[in-house]
Amino acid sequence: MSFWEYLGNRHQQLLTDAYQHASVVFQCMVVATVIGVLIGVVTYRSGWGGNLATMATSTILTIPSLAMIGLLIPAVGLGVPPTVIALTLYGLLPIVRNAIVGLRGVDPSLVDAAKGIGMSRVMRLVRVELPLAWPPVLTGIRVSTQMLMGIAAIAAYASGPGLGNEIFRGIASLGSKNALNQVLAGTLGIIVLALLFDAAYVLVGRLTIPRGIRA
């Protein structure tokens, strides 16, 4: 069976796996973004605090994904829970680091001007600092998403959702007539999803970042 014939016969299952893969990555990115930005907001004013946050999230990223999921299985079981926890933790580093860098890079004179017109600390953060730090934060989100697209495939090891199941089935049946088709379909599906997400982020950047800041 050719690859195109395989796609034609399995397109329904592949679309379901692709939807689940995209869904779990998107949801984990939302959670990682909220947590990562909060960590950045809490630590960016402190040199040691920012370094500690960056070091902690960097350490998480050094843990092999298969090992991370394997360690989570006894605690939370199989399926979605270990997948969501692992992906959220892996997605933190680029967001935390870029949030800290972005917030520290805000021109102090703009913050002083906002303070001078009576803005509270929270208002200055929400209306001045975070909007100006948004471009590097968005870059961190893009980097995290690209990483998680690949890491999410390992979730199939824990009976998680996504295109990794197609890849693992192909690897488990090496030598059969469709083994290569399964691995190729899963891999290409992840690549296509990653490109679509990245294109969406480019559009979000154009819609949310003023032209002057982009320049």
Describe the secondary-structure layout.
Layout: H1 3-43, H2 47-62, H3 65-76, H4 80-90, H5 92-104, H6 108-116, H7 121-151, H8 164-172, H9 179-208, H10 211-214
Domain ABC transmembrane type-1: 18-201
Protein name: ABC transporter permease
Transmembrane segments: 24-44, 51-73, 179-204
Can you tell me about this structure?
It is a multi-pass membrane protein. It is found in: Cell membrane; Membrane. This is ABC transporter permease. With 215 residues, the protein is mainly α. Helix content is 82%, strand content 0%. The chain is built from ten helices and no strands. It is elongated and about 70 Å long. The protein starts with a helix and ends with a helix. The mean pLDDT is 90.
